[in-house]
Amino acid sequence: MAIKRKSEPFDELVYDLTRGVPSGLVTTYGAVARAIGRPGAARAVGRVLNKNPDLARVPCHRVVRSDGKVGGYVGGIRRKIRLLRGEGVPVNQNRISDFKSYLWQP
DNA sequence: GCTCTGACGATTT
DNA sequence: GAAATCGCCAGAG
Predict the structure, then answer these.
(1) Which of A3, A36, A64, A74, by CA, is between 20 and 30 Å from A58?
(2) Is A40 within 7 A of strand C by CB distance?
(3) Residue A96 belongs to what H/E stretch?
């Protein structure tokens, strides 16, 4: 079975990408969408993360918008910001300072 | 198979 | 810089 691709649901790919984000860095929905081979599917990526079955398994709080805004989070945006700050990412009013410097690219 | 929704993106005003 | 508008993709009803 050397051939194996696209057999995995969109969700699995998104989770795997998000799982690869190191602590202290963040990525964007668009970057994830592009990494899985579906550029422009940023919306779909966000939808998948919202269905995230296990927050401890997938650090979805490290995924932010392309503008540097944190976006949203299950349980409250406030919670996401708190987590990011705890990892060393400076957040200002739902926005990340120099977020491009903390941006992690696959 | 169509319609609606959504943790988005980029552009324009 | 913020708000409004259009466009794109995937899942659920």
Answers:
(1) A3
(2) yes
(3) strand A95-96
Q: Mean pLDDT over residues A38-50, rounded?
A: 94
Give the active site residue among A13, A32, A60, A64. Answer: A60
Query: How far, rounded to the nearest angstrom, does the alpha carbon of residue A31 sit from its chain's CA centroid?
Result: 9
A3 pLDDT more than 50: no
Question: The whole model's pTM is what?
Answer: 0.90
> Which of A39, A40, A50 shows the shortest CA–CA distance to A11?
A50
Q: Is A60 a catalytic residue?
A: yes
The β-bridge relationship of strands A95-96 and A91-92 is: antiparallel
The two tokens of residue A2 are 């050397």
CB atoms within 10 A of CB A24: 13
